[in-house]
Design goal:
Elements: H1 4-19, H2 23-42, H3 48-65, H4 75-93, H5 108-111, H6 120-139, H7 142-152, H8 158-165, H9 169-191
Length: about 190
């Protein structure tokens, strides 16, 4: 795997190559970012189907905007800004807040270290920990959850989180601090 700085530069270069007509460059970007983007929507409380639809909507926006792409910001900042805007549009299209679904197929469990084979107790404990974390994450206010997901899931910087969500760096920092605090408190209560 490329170091973060090299990957950011590589992402920009891939997008420029795609803009200039190289379809394989788009395929490389899509392969690299489709999973994290899908998980971003799942962790916002969307079910698998709406998350998949919004993921495809973001990629369609990228395809339509390719001629206008200028590598002024990191590709991931641009990608998640598009995702944020699609999510806001989805909320606006809904008459009420989207129900927070449990996404059983979001691979959250698969991303944790595997418990030793043949140890059902360890597997059950791991599964329960994942459920508790996901419930705590879904209980966060929308702004805090999004900041947390962008920072932890997408690996974006504080400045990128602020740019994507359209707030100051201090506001993004506060949202992250509150998110971590609330998650810690919720998880401590679950284990008490």
């Amino acid at each position: 795997m490329l170091p973060v700085m090299a990957r950011e530069s590589d992402d920009k270069a891939l997008m420029v190559r795609y803009r200039d007509g190289e379809v394989a460059a788009f395929e490389a970007l899509y392969t690299r970012h489709k999973g994290p983007l899908y998980r971003y929507f799942l962790r916002q409380g969307l079910g698998p189907e709406p998350a998949a639809e919004l993921t495809q909507e973001v990629w369609m926006k990228i395809i339509r905007a390719k001629e206008r792409y200028e590598p002024t910001a990191k590709f991931t900042t641009w990608l998640y800004r598009l995702a944020h805007n699609c999510l806001v549009d989805q909320y606006r299209r809904s008459a009420h807040k989207i129900a927070q679904h449990r996404a059983d197929d979001d691979n959250a469990v698969a991303q944790l270290p595997a418990a030793p084979a043949g140890n059902p107790e360890a597997n059950a404990m791991r599964d329960e920990s994942v459920k508790q974390f996901r419930a705590a994450l879904l209980n966060l206010p929308d702004e805090q959850r999004e900041a947390f997901i962008l920072k932890q899931e997408a690996g974006l910087s504080l400045a990128d989180v602020a740019a994507i969500t359209g707030v100051s760096a201090e506001t993004a920092k506060s949202r992250l601090r509150y998110a971590f605090s609330k998650l810690r408190r919720q998880l401590d209560e679950d284990h008490a």
